[in-house]
Design brief:
448 residues, alpha+beta, PmbA/TldD fold, 2 domains, 5-stranded mixed beta barrel, 9 helices, globular
């Protein structure tokens, strides 16, 4: 695999070739990496997968016209042909007055921040197999577990490099390690499935395979005998592993593309309260070892922690350079991109800060409600804010989580849900988007 220095050399060279081919401006991104994963089922090896990739994408501008192209062939002749084709394509493309590189004066200067994202490790298949087996064995050992969808363990390393024709070149390495298990409990005709997993940048930060497997088994068994919930308006409590989706909807609604196209239910919400006064949401790209940490954005701009919501009030849009120009604002360092095409917008490590109440206190006054552990369906309209999802979880009766329930729907509007949302104080930084347990009163619950 390429080193970060080698990757920087390649993207810088691609820019030089694009300029020689007649481009007025250009940027280039390179992604290279290797991955190894092992899966097992019922104690036997099921699959070993190893992959390597290296791809370079080139975006060129001829005036306000642009084109993007990519290649896996890094030979000098292939890169010359790539640059020539990209320029020819750009000259025939439609004009876009908002497109272009990021403002030169905003580019990251100096050294790339060191976020300790790479542990340099790519475990061997024997080690990964043993880890996957340990996770599945622990899940299958839970009384009530009757079958398995398998256990898995994986490791990967990648290099990202970006260069622009107006002065930025940067690269960084990142690793990722994960363990998962998925099992079934109960007998045929009344079986329930659940899972558990953990991912981390460094292998040493992973939970033990045994803990992950045991959690998967216990979750599956807890769902046995699922009943129905009565329909009506009631409190809904979101487990953190599904509640984080609400922040995903928030970030989509405040993205530059949604605002410029006027397709967001938060279109007129800037500077207004959208949550309760004590709620804050922070985006932190500099979190050491963070699953979405990054030292610069997809256009070469510096990134830094920013409060998206502070004391309940919406503070900023998420903007790349194109959407910022269209809105007459400055880019916020939230450009993300793949190898092909123009940048889009996305958050990094997104977190809703802890509330004040323990989970037990949060639900103590709920006479009848639901605790949601699984969501299904895509019934979210970010233009209107309408929200309707299939769900499964547990009934809350007399302030306690009691029996499993399934096949019901929860519905409301994101505007009302955000305003009514109350967070617990059990925040854990396990995912790219993290929230504590969340309570929302007054949602509509309908039994299937």
């Amino acid at each position: 695999m390429l080193t970060p220095d080698e990757a920087q050399t390649r993207v810088h060279d691609a820019i030089a070739r694009a300029t020689r081919a007649g481009a007025d401006a250009a940027d280039a991104m390179l992604s290279a990496g290797e991955s190894l994963s092992v899966s097992v089922r019922l104690g036997a090896l099921e699959d070993v997968d190893r992959a390597e990739h290296a791809e370079l994408g080139l975006r060129v501008f001829c005036g306000t016209r642009s084109a993007s192209i990519s290649t896996t062939d890094f030979s000098p002749a292939a890169l010359d042909t790539l640059a020539e084709r990209a320029v020819a394509m750009a000259r025939e493309a439609p004009e876009d007055e908002w497109a272009g590189l990021a403002p030169a004066g905003r580019l990251l200067q100096g050294d790339v921040p060191q976020l300790d994202l790479d542990d340099g490790a790519l475990a061997d298949p024997v080690t990964l197999r043993a880890t996957a087996l340990a996770a599945e064995d622990a899940a299958r050992a839970v009384p009530g577990v009757t079958n398995s969808e398998g256990g898995s363990a994986s490791a990967s390393r990648s290099i990202w490099a970006l260069a622009t024709s107006h002065g930025f070149t940067g690269a960084y390495a990142a690793s990722n390690h994960s363990i998962s298990a998925s099992v079934l409990a109960g007998e045929t005709g009344a079986m329930e499935r659940d899972y558990a997993y953990h991912s981390a940048r460094h292998a040493r930060h992973l939970e033990s395979a045994e803990a992950i497997g045991r959690r998967a088994g216990e979750r599956a068994v807890a769902r046995l005998g699922a009943g129905r919930v009565r329909s009506g308006a009631m409190p809904v409590v979101f487990d953190p592993r599904v509640g984080n989706g609400l922040l995903g909807h928030l970030s989509s609604a405040i993205s530059g593309s949604a605002i410029t196209r006027k397709t967001s239910f938060l279109l007129d919400a800037m500077g207004s309260p959208i949550f309760a006064p004590d709620i804050s949401v922070v985006d932190d790209p500099h979190r050491p070892h963070g699953l979405r940490s990054r030292p610069f954005d997809g256009e070469g701009l510096p990134v830094s922690p920013v409060a998206l919501v502070e004391d309940g009030v919406l503070q900023t849009w998420l903007l790349d350079s194109a959407s910022a120009r269209q809105l007459g604002l400055e880019p916020t360092g939230h450009a993300v991109r793949g190898i092909g095409g123009a940048p889009s917008v996305g958050p990094s490590n997104l977190t809703m800060q802890n509330g004040k109440l323990p989970v037990e206190t949060l639900i103590a006054d709920i006479d009848y409600g639901v605790y949601v552990t699984e969501l299904s369906g895509q019934g979210v309209n970010l233009v209107t804010g309408d929200y309707s999802r299939g769900a499964a979880g547990f009934l809350i009766e007399g302030g306690e989580i009691t029996r499993p329930i399934s096949e019901f729907t929860i519905a409301g509007t994101l505007q009302a849900m955000f305003r009514a949302l109350v967070p617990a104080n059990d925040l854990e930084l396990r995912y790219g988007i993290n929230v504590p347990t969340l309570r929302i009163d007054g949602m509509t619950v309908a039994s299937g």
